[in-house]
């Protein structure tokens, strides 16, 4: 292999490795046992010569790492994630390193987890499961684990991009919910979908569904009926977790489904004890197909930059770089 490419973690599948090997790359996979690598750990991995790195959302890709990568002759970095709040794209630009992410392949998988959390919260699945396992079930009762019906309620979506729109469609179509969404951009296709589905329901003699584009996040929180349920599958800091714990304590009927946390991997004090919270460890994109796809896209991102973009003559096969106009390395 002419090019040295590092992956800071073992990643699912073998396709990503084969793609790199077939294209003159030597692939080095870090097998360090600790979950979160420090900046120093990654500098040591990069060493003196490194053409590209595939990294993870747990790593702090800022000035120090991009400087180290650029010194080692590196031209490309890809996050194995769609989110890139862990990446300082300006610093990458400064050092002439192209940055990629892995959109698309995780849209439905992430939306399905958001839907799972919505259902788990509304139907109290985790609490009920604990109850069964604890041997507490001694017969059917009219009041046992009564939750909320989603049908006919309004689901609120903040951020109607790829994932938010996919989730909105699942909830509207699957559960006949109305939609209120907030986004800087108009989600035209989503609006059309809800309108058409509403008309279909009406023609069937059923209660139609409606959509509304809110002019603020507050309006969504005020008007969504899933006000009694909050789901977060984006990034932890969008929710004030201390305030959330307090709200969960004061309002036992309020329920939350969380995939992400303000200070991962930690939870704020009290959250773990709340029966009205369903918490999972940042697994929204964790389906086999998606994780293999993310690894493949991340490898293609790095290859695309090293070998000349787009490598297969099909621009759609390579995720667009986040900073396509990065200046060449000095
Ligand atoms: C996961 O959180 C991702 O951004 O891909
Ligand atoms: C519940 O099991 C019912 O039959 O209503």
Explain what the structure shows.
- The protein is α/β, with parallel strands linked by helices and 330 residues long.
- It folds into two domains: 3-105 and 287-317, NAD(P)-binding Rossmann-like Domain (Rossmann fold, 3-Layer(aba) Sandwich); 107-279, NAD(P)-binding Rossmann-like Domain (Rossmann fold).
- 37% of the residues lie in helices and 14% in strands.
- The protein contains eleven helices and eleven strands.
- It has helices at 15-22, 39-46, 63-71, 89-94, 107-122, 125-133, 162-175, 188-203, 217-223, 241-250, 288-307; strands at 3-7, 25-29, 52-55, 76-79, 98-100, 154-158, 178-182, 211-213, 229-232, 255-258, 277-279.
- It has a five-stranded parallel β-sheet with strand order 2-1-3-4-5. A three-stranded parallel β-sheet has the order 6-7-8, with helices on both faces. Strands 9-10-11 form a three-stranded parallel β-sheet, covered by helices on one side.
- Helix 5 (107-122) packs across helix 7 (162-175) and helix 7 packs parallel to helix 8.
- The longest helix is centred in the C-terminal third of the chain and has 20 residues, at 288-307.
- It is globular, with a radius of gyration of 23 Å.
- It starts with a strand and ends in a 23-residue tail after the last helix.
- The structure holds glyoxylic acid (2 copies).
- One glyoxylic acid (GLV) binds at residues 57, 81-83, 106, 285.
- One glyoxylic acid binds at residues 57, 81-83, 106, 285.
Question: How would you concisely characterize the structure shown here?
Answer:
Belongs to the D-isomer specific 2-hydroxyacid dehydrogenase family. Residues 117-284 form the D-isomer specific 2-hydroxyacid dehydrogenase NAD-binding domain. The protein is α/β, with parallel strands linked by helices.
């Amino acid at each position: 292999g002419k090019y040295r490419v590092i992956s800071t973690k073992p990643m699912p599948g073998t396709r990503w490795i084969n793609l790199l090997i077939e294209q003159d790359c030597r692939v080095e996979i870090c097998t360090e046992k600790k979950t979160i690598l420090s900046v120093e750990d990654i500098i040591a991995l990069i060493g003196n010569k490194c053409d590209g790195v595939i990294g993870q959302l747990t790593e702090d890709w800022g000035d120090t790492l991009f400087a180290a990568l650029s010194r080692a002759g590196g031209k490309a970095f890809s996050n194995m994630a769609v989110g890139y709040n862990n990446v300082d794209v300006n610093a990458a630009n400064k050092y002439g390193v192209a940055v990629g992410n892995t959109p698309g392949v995780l849209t439905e998988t992430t939306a399905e987890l958001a839907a799972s959390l919505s259902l788990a919260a509304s139907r109290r699945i985790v609490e009920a499961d604990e109850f069964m396992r604890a041997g507490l079930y001694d017969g059917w009762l009219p009041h046992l684990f009564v939750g909320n019906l989603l049908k006919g309620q309004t689901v609120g979506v903040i951020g109607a991009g790829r994932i938010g729109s996919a989730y909105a469609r699942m909830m509207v179509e699957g559960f006949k919910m109305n939609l209120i969404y907030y986004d800087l951009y108009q989600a035209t296709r989503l609006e059309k979908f809800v309108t058409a589905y509403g008309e279909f329901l009406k023609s069937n003699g059923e209660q139609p569904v409606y959509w509304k584009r809110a002019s603020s996040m507050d309006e969504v929180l005020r008007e969504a009926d899933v006000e009694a349920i909050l789901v977060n599958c984006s990034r932890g800091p969008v929710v004030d977790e201390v305030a959330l714990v307090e709200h969960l304590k004061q309002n036992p009927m309020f329920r939350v489904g969380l995939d992400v946390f303000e200070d991962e991997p930690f939870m704020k004090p009290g959250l773990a004890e709340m029966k009205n919270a369903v918490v999972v460890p940042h697994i929204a994109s964790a389906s086999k197909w998606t994780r293999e796809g993310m690894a493949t896209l991340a490898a293609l991102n790095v290859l695309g930059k090293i070998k000349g973009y787009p490598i297969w003559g099909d621009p759609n096969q390579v995720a667009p770089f986040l900073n396509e106009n990065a200046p060449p390395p000095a």
